[in-house]
Structures are given as C-alpha cells and as structure tokens.
Amino acid sequence: MTVLITGGTVVNADRSERADVLCEEGLITAVGENLDAPKGATIVDAGGQYVMPGGIDPHTHMQLPFMGTVASDDFYSGTAAGLAGGTTMIIDFVIPAPQQNLMDAYNEWRGWAEKSVADYTFHVAITWWDDSVHADMGTLVNECGVNSFKHFMAYKGAIMADDEVLVNSFTRARELGAICTVHAENGELVFRLQKDIYEKGITGPEGHPLSRPPEVEGEAANRAIRIAEVLKVPLYVVHTSCRQALESITRARLEGQRVFGEALAGHLLIDDSVYRNTDFEVAAAHVMSPPFRAPEHQEALWHGLQSGSLQTTATDHCCFCADQKAAGKDDFRLIPNGTGGIENRLEVLWDQGVNTGRLTMNEFVAVTSTNAAQIFNVYPRKGSISVGADADIVVWDPEASKTISAKTHFQNVDYNIFEGMTVTGCASHTISQGKVVYANGELQVERGVGRYVDRPAFAPYYEALNRQAQLAEPVAVDR
Ligand code: URP
Ligand code: ZN
Ligand code: ZN
Q1: Handedness of CA 250, 251, 253, 259 (dihedral sign)
Q2: Is residue 42 part of a domain?
Q3: What is the number of structural domains in the chain?
C-alpha cells in the first residue's frame, strides 16, 4: 500500500515543519513539501493537522495471567485499541512464574502475541534466580532481541524479586548490555501494611492506597537506584507515581547516573479520591499498583516530565472487568491490580499537557514516542518521522473533541478510568506499517499483522561500563 499524507505539519521530537509524508511498503520514503502522489496512492488529507510518530506505549500487559485471572484485553483487542488512539507499538512484559524456565515463558508470550494487529516487543521479568536464568538472559539478549529486564520489587509470595535476585540480575544485565527496569514498591512493607489494615477492619478498596503509601515506593526506587549505581547498570523506573520516587530519580540523574523514569497517564490525571467512592465497582476499577496518589504528586509528576527527570509516558494497560475485580469484594488484597488506558493516553496527555501549556508539541512527541524508542534502542526505526523509518504515524486533529467513555471505547473492558473526561485533540488517522488502520472513528485492522520488533543490546556504551566495573575492582593490601 502507498499512502501520501498531504498538507499537514510534521511534528518530531526535535522540530516541526510543513511537509507531506510518503509511505511505501511499510516505510517512510519521502518527507517534503508538495510531494507528488504515486499512481494508486491513498491520500490522507492532513490539512490543519499534525503528523506525528505513532505512540509507543512502553508498559502494557495484554492477556496477563495475574492474581488468579487473566487481563481482559488480549494482544488482538489491546493493540487494536491502541491504534484507535494513535499508539502503534507496545512494549509488553514476559513474566515467568517463579521457577518457570525463562525461555518457556518467552516462547509462551511470543505465541500469545501473534494475534497482535500492531508491532510489539517484550521486556522480560526476572522473578527468580539460578544458573539457568543467568544463561537464558544471555540467549534472550544475544539471540532474541531483548535488551531490557524487569524486576517487580512488590507482589511478595508471587513474582517479587528480592535484593539477591536484583543484584544477580543487574550484574548479568550489565555484562550483556541490557537495561534494567523496576516496579518500585517495597513488597515486605506492602505485605505488612495490607495485613495490618485488613485486621483493623478496612476490607474495601480504600485499604489499597493505605497499604501502599508513597514512602513504600520511594524506598524501593531509591534502593534499586543505589544497587544499579554500585553495579554500574542503567535503570528505568516504571510507573513513577509519587514525589518521593521522583526525587530519587532526579537526584541520581544530577549525580550523573543513567536512570530513567516513566509516568503513567493515569497517575498524571487521576487522584486517590477514587478509592473513597462508595460504589465498590468504581473504587475497585481503580485498584492498581502503585495506587493513584494525592493531587500534590500529580503536579510533581508533571514537573518531572517538564524538567526531563521523567522521560516517558505509558499506561501499564492491564484491564480487569467488574466480575474479575469482584474477587476482592470482601478483601481489597484480592482485587486484581490493573487499569486500562492504551486507547486514551495520547489524547489525555495532549489535552492536559499541550493544551494547558505544560508541554510543547515536540515535548509531547518525545514523551509519548521518541524517548521510549531511544531508551529501548529502536530509534529511528520507531519514534521518528524520517526517511527510512517504519511508517507508524498518527495524524492528529487539534480541534477535534470527544468525551471518553467505556460505552464507546474499543478496549475490551467495562470501565474507563478517564470516563466522562472531554478532551480536545484526537487521532483522526493512524497509519501502521504504512497502512491506514484507523480513520475518523473506524478501525480496519488485520489479526496477526503485528510484528515482533528486535531490540539490540547497547554494545559500545556497556563495554565502557564493564571496563569501569573491572577498573573498580578492589586491590588487596600486601602486608
Ligand atoms: O497494578 C498493576 N500495575 N498491574 C499490573 C502489574 C504491574 O504491577 O505493573
Ligand atoms: Zn508494576
Ligand atoms: Zn505493569
């Protein structure tokens, strides 16, 4: 398919320019003024609109088996919903059960993802440790295009990585040239607080944020950062939700440490009052970890994005319907943790980021696409409107307005955490792999066309890190 996008303003992370964009055979083949339309080309009229790199959501969990159930959006419905909102690639997570062989888990997830309608790639979680995990991390980096490993510092008794696992895995990741990522919450503290709160008779969803206060996240973020500092490995902190964690990231970056931070659209827009809703279904629909925070933390997160302390935005898209959330009707600890948002991330961030003057359009592109592509080493194939890049593009109508609702969204979940929010600025067209897959409210996707995207290791930079680590070897004193 050949597509010519005419009359728009191309907005990349580094500049904006009036230009047409020609897409042929899945790639961008020309960017310039007044391009001629090849015979048979589909024309997308982008007059008065912005033409931006498709969104990259670096944190999703499609059809994740979690807390006794499975996330309701699978790789088909979830990637389709993403396209409807202008997101053209996801980075999902392979999460082995404790003791599960890493390669088995990786192959299982690769099989599930074959139904995707947009491109995808995987972080792999390290949930336990032995020699096979050490070896499989090597296979994943050297043969499978994985360059990032995830560590859940929470979910004790399930997928939690303790300090021993972190130290082993961080060391191995540096050797291999991979980046480490962490879900930063102190799992021991969460476990204790959950028990205390439940035993005090607080059994409803309001107990969820009480058991996961910001200090619990700040402690874990700081611990992971300091472990990464000692072991000289770059670190990416997922779903940074509070000032305490942000301050640790900011301090480390000021000290020259290679640490990155991600903010979720939900954490930027929604506050913790949702947990005090008297309707169990509404409160439970917002149960995710880390929880939504008091408003002061949202402002801090915006400042983090504005200042560059946080580089990416994501959704942690992990949907559970009301009947699944009902598992925790009498005990908040059993409510499956997770919320959605892949379809709405770009529009809510545009509305609350660009329309409010917090972010420029170029910064918007950086935090929704380009920075993730650079941090996870798929730039400029992804995250860029330039010749040779994949033709993953969103055409953005800054005047279009809509009210978000579960009644009209494509996500396979019966609740929308942004329900009732009216946004100005939406995707009018999404182009994925050079094909128009979403136009003016209509999705036209093909099951299984999504491709697995290889992400090479970060060789030269890590060679320097590994050299430094050797130089730092202590020398015994000869007595
Ligand atoms: O509550 C959440 N975030 N569920 C998905 C798993 C995770 O912690 O990222
Ligand atoms: Zn998490
Ligand atoms: Zn997650």
Answers
A1: negative
A2: no
A3: 1
Counting from 1 in the atom list of ligand 1, the atom nearest the Cα of 337 is 1
Cα of 289 from ligand 2 centre, angstroms: 6
Q: Looking at the domain assignment, is residue 340 inside a domain?
A: yes
What CATH number does the domain containing 293 carry? 3.20.20.140
- Residue 270 inside a domain? The answer is yes
- Of 91, 93, 95, 288, the one to substitute when testing ligand 1's pocket (max ligand atoms within 8 A of C-beta) is 288
> What gap in Å lies between CA 57 and CA 460, rounded to an integer?
26
Ligand nearest the Cα of residue 338 is 1
Dihedral angle computed from the Cα positions of residues 123, 127, 128 and 131, in that order, rounded to the nearest 10 degrees: -10
Q: Is residue 355 part of a domain?
A: yes
Q: Which residues line the pocket of ligand 1, CB cutoff 6 A?
A: 61, 183, 288-289, 316, 318, 337-338
Q: What is the pLDDT of residues 255-286, one digit of tens each?
A: 999 999 999 999 999 999 999 999 999 999 99
Tokens of 180: 């480490």
pTM of the model: 0.98
Name the CA radius of gyration of the chain, rounded: 22
